[in-house]
Amino acid sequence: MQNKKALHRFTKILIDFMFYSGILVCAFVPVIIYKLIPYTFIAGSIRLQLTAVLMLSGIAALYILWTLRYIFKTLLHTDPFILENVDALRKMAVASFVIAALYITKCLFWFTLGTIIIVIIFAIAGLFSLVLADVFKQAVQYKEENDLTV
């Protein structure tokens, strides 16, 4: 049981770290794109589009982390099998699909193999979140049935 608490504590710290460091990274994306990366690496004509894709996908990723923090809080303090978590998982799926769509759009002006990998990863994450939402919904229904029986 002690290992489980340590793992939960570590996971919460990791999610919080990613969330707050993600806010800093999103805030500094324009500085990184326009000031720190030389013009020989990124053409000036695509800097604005690249900045928009990175900012929007960063915001979507922060939303996913925010939602994970909420779900994790219910896991630690209350019952995780609630309809709010089902909605949260569906919203995470939408955010994942938004990131995938943003990077598909990025392929129109700057195609890289890494971009395709990001699209595949976030499309799979979106599908996984939808499946997990359905599993949670079924668990909520079973739990409610069981609560009424007892």
Describe this protein's structure.
With 150 residues, the chain is an all-alpha fold. It has one domain (2-149). It has four helices and no strands. It has helices spanning 2-36, 47-77, 83-109, 113-149. The chain is elongated, with a radius of gyration of 19 Å. The chain starts with a helix and ends with a helix.
Mean pLDDT: 91
- Morphology call: elongated
By helix and strand content, what is the structural category?
A: mainly alpha
Beta-strand residue fraction: under 5%
Tally of DSSP β-strands: 0
Low-pLDDT segments, ≥5 res:
none
Number of DSSP helical runs: 4
Report the major sheet.
none
Pfam families: DUF2975
Keywords: Membrane, Transmembrane, Transmembrane helix
Organism: Desulfotruncus arcticus DSM 17038
Protein name: DUF2975 domain-containing protein
